[in-house]
Amino acid sequence: MAKKPVLKHVTKAGISPEMETQIEKVKGKRARAVIDHILKHGHVTTEDLEKMGYAHAPRAARDVRENGIPLKTTRVRGESGKLIAAYEFGDSGQIKDFKLGGRKVFSKPFKAALLEKYGSKCAVCNVSYPEIYLQIDHRVPYEVGGDPGVHLVEDFMLLCATCNRKKSWSCEHCLNWTNKKDPDVCQTCFWANPDAYSHIAMKPIRRAEIAWTNAAEVADFESTKKQAKKLEQPLSEYIKRVLREKK
Prior knowledge:
A three-stranded antiparallel beta sheet has the order 1-3-2. It has a two-stranded antiparallel ribbon with strand order 4-5. It contains twelve helices and five strands. Residues about 1-10 have low confidence and may be disordered. It starts with a helix and ends with a helix. It folds into three domains: about 5-100, Orthogonal Bundle (Arc Repressor Mutant, subunit A), CATH 1.10.10; about 110-185, 3-Layer(aba) Sandwich (His-Me finger endonuclease fold), CATH 3.40.1800; about 215-245. It is mainly α. The chain has helices spanning about 5-15, 15-25, 30-40, 45-50, 55-65, 110-120, 140-145, 160-170, 175-180, 185, 215-230, 235-245, and strands at about 45, 70-75, 85-90, 135-140, 155-160. Helix 11 (about 215-230) packs across helix 12.
């Protein structure tokens, strides 16, 4: 029986049998598109992904990693001559078998349980949203801890899209994500437990997400912003100054 086209590409690319086996099990459309392009061309760039209709390249690459396939990020010259990101297969020794099939879909009853426990608000910025705008997120990133066999409410949080993107960027630039992959380190991070943490992405940082959400608070914000501008200070620095002076 003739081999599938993907196997021909695998052979040409010199990919290990372990990687080949893992690749064949990937079914998701976006992850499959990334994989097939790498198999054919050796890598896929952010420009390639945009041409394929995937404007958020890191999300497309994450789809592949969430299927247990290691990718490494490199830099290449794009069509404009500028350096852009490119993804290629990583070390087959880093294949994560427990991630086969990618993330599991969350049920409506599970989201309802999260809403009942935490309310219809973002766990990071504490702003209330209609439930449709809140996303279910692993406290310990999927790429570090995988997906537990049983979904427990305490292992997840509700995030607005903006805070979810902030968390993704911070986590993806954390040494625990890229090297250690220790779930215990994640558990003590702001992005897993905003109310009880000792670091942010392994750095000794503290963070306060503040939103002014009604007319009176907006007036306070505009007044504070005006004072900061008058003193030629960034708003965040001015707020810190006010807090220090009130000690």
